[in-house]
Design brief:
mainly alpha; Nitrile Hydratase, Chain A; 12 helices; binds fe (iii) ion
Length: about 210
């Protein structure tokens, strides 16, 4: 992981391998292209980080909802119709000026599927899993995230039972924005905790 690829982009080699595998499966008549497309679409868009972004935007806009999210993450995301599917408990952890949270699964790749979709390749990599525990600030810096020394960094280890969702800090200059607009500032990486949410200006550049 250490600087060998851009963290925000999928590995081109991985994409190619997936495509080759897909063509082979279709050629051999093992799967239908339409079924595969529907599955990928489901995890990239419906089950993917857009769900999480909606949850975070609501938490920023609605103090009562944020309180419910921090008290019982699974119940709060169920208000959107998002549910675990594997019976796991979702725990939301809030970033503040004093505390920055980051999530890992040191054993394998446990990840909050209902709100974030499929985990990125780097999340499952051995270097991320071991290094973010030992040297979180260094790993965060590699993602372009530099925090003040006075901010405590907390690393949360996901398990099959407990999955974590980071509530990033609401960026400045976002007063009065609608939930839909706020959701555009919430990136997948900001909900894993390796990045912070985008400012409106940064979101416009994407
Ligand atoms: Fe795991």
């Amino acid at each position: 992981m250490a600087g060998d690829h851009k963290h925000n982009d999928p590995l081109p080699e991985t994409v190619l391998r997936v495509k080759s595998l897909e063509s082979l499966l279709i050629e051999k008549g093992l799967v239908e292209a339409a079924a595969l497309d529907a599955l990928v679409d489901r995890y990239e868009t419906k089950v993917g980080p857009k769900n999480g972004a909606k949850v975070i935007a609501r938490a920023w806009a609605d103090v009562d909802f944020k309180q419910r999210l921090l008290t019982d993450g699974s119940a709060a995301i169920a208000e959107f119709g998002f549910s675990g599917g594997q019976g796991e408990e979702l725990v939301a952890v809030e970033n503040t000026e004093a505390i920055h949270n980051v999530v890992v699964c040191t054993l394998c790749s446990c990840y909050p599927w209902p709100v974030l979709g499929l985990p990125p390749v780097w999340y499952k990599s051995a270097p991320y899993r071991s290094r973010v525990v030992r040297e979180p600030r260094k790993v965060l810096a590699e993602f372009g995230t530099t925090l003040p020394e006075t901010t405590e960094v907390r690393v949360w280890d996901s398990t099959a039972e407990t999955r974590y969702l980071v509530v990033p800090r609401r960026p400045p200059g976002t007063d009065g924005m609608t939930e839909d607009d706020l959701a555009l500032l919430v990136t997948r990486d900001s909900m894993i905790g390796v990045s912070v949410a985008l400012t409106p200006a940064q979101a416009r550049e994407i």
